[in-house]
């Protein structure tokens, strides 16, 4: 029986635990710094199992010792942005929190695979890798599956077709310079540029890039969590079932896409060992230029932290 621990029992963490419990892919432990919060939510989710028909064991705790033996750890602890803020504005607070979380992961679950969700995503994933001391391929970030999901949803709305038929691809940093890739996006195998004019695609690309901020503005407090938790669970399933899905993830680059020593969103093969392969795509010159700019933001963040 697999064991998955979710650090942070807030909006993203608790919704992720709910989706994992419903999927019955392993026992789930939820931790948080707030006493009673993970325990109360875990109890509620255990009782939901009797009505929804799942037998997943869900426990809540404030003690890191309880994550021992985890196959996968999902980090969602930290603060979310408010309207008018960028994800990078969260760097100071969240890097401190995740540094501490990661040291506890290394202490209690030294053999786990780690998926980071906390923002600013690519920088905090780097912090998690450094602070755990784990091999880079065992630590990765969730971003592209969410961003591609948003792009796919907007495409399906535009074409008035089923979302099930849209396969989208978004790479780069999980920030204002992410790069949706229309040439690698298909609807039932048909390349997107054959179905929509450039001007419409550009509009959908822009909405995708601002997809997180659009929700932050509407909610006024906190950020998205339903689609993010769906994306997390898709990635968790790939690790637990060793299904070797080809999906985007924030992975540690060692020369790919002209980048070295940073975490960046790229297509990968995801399995039980974590990032098992990085796939390099041919890109347009303008897309490469956005990637270069985006990588500078990530490097600035890392050096701001003195790492
Ligand atoms: N990567 C993505 O695509 C993506 C998507 C959505 C949200 N996020 C990020 O995920 C993070 C969490 O978002 P949320 O909406 O769940 O926020 P939230 O405020 O609802 O929950 C955060 C939880 O973290 C807990 N926490 C704080 N410090 C902790 C610590 N030291 N140890 C354990 N728990 C701690 C808080 O008590 C709270 O319960 C944010 O940084 C947000 O920006 C990323
Ligand atoms: O936008 C945010 O701050 C949260 C998350 O990164 C998202 O894309 O929904």
From TrEMBL:
Residues 146-303 form the Lactate/malate dehydrogenase C-terminal domain. This is Malate dehydrogenase. One of its GO terms (molecular function) is L-malate dehydrogenase (NAD+) activity. It comes from Methanosarcina horonobensis HB-1 = JCM 15518. The keyword Oxidoreductase applies. Substrate binds at residues 81, 87, 119, 150. NAD(+) binds at residues 8-13, 32, 94, 117-119. GO terms for biological process: lactate metabolic process; tricarboxylic acid cycle. SUPFAM superfamilies: LDH C-terminal domain-like, NAD(P)-binding Rossmann-fold domains. Catalyzes the reversible oxidation of malate to oxaloacetate.
């Amino acid at each position: 029986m697999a064991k998955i621990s979710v650090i942070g029992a807030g909006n993203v963490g608790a919704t992720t635990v709910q989706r994992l419990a419903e999927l019955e892919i392993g026992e789930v432990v939820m931790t948080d710094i707030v006493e009673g919060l993970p325990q109360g939510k875990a109890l509620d989710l255990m009782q939901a199992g009797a009505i929804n028909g799942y037998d997943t064991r869900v426990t809540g705790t404030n003690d890191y010792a309880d994550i021992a033996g985890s196959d996968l750890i999902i980090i969602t602890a930290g603060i979310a942005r408010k309207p008018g803020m960028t994800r990078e504005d969260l760097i100071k607070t969240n890097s401190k929190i995740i540094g501490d979380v990661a040291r506890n992961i290394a202490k209690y679950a030294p053999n786990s695979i780690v998926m980071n969700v906390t923002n600013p995503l690519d920088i905090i994933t780097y912090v998690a890798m450094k602070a755990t001391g784990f091999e880079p391929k065992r630590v990765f970030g969730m971003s592209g599956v969410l961003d591609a999901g948003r792009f796919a949803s907007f495409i399906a709305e535009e074409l008035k077709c089923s979302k099930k038929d849209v396969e989208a691809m978004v790479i780069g940093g999980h920030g204002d310079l992410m790069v949706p890739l229309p040439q690698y996006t298909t609807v039932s195998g048909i390349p997107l540029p054959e179905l929509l004019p450039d001007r419409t695609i550009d509009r959908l690309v822009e909405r995708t890039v601002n997809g997180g901020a659009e929700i932050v503005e509407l909610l006024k407090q906190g950020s998205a969590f339903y689609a993010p938790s769906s994306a997390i669970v898709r990635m968790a399933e790939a690790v637990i079932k060793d299904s070797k899905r080809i999906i985007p993830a924030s992975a540690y680059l060692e020369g790919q896409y002209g980048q070295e020593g940073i975490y960046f969103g790229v297509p990968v093969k995801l399995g039980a060992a974590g990032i098992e392969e990085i796939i390099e795509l041919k890109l347009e010159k303008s897309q490469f230029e956005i990637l270069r700019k985006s990588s500078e933001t990530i490097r600035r963040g890392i050096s701001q932290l003195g790492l």
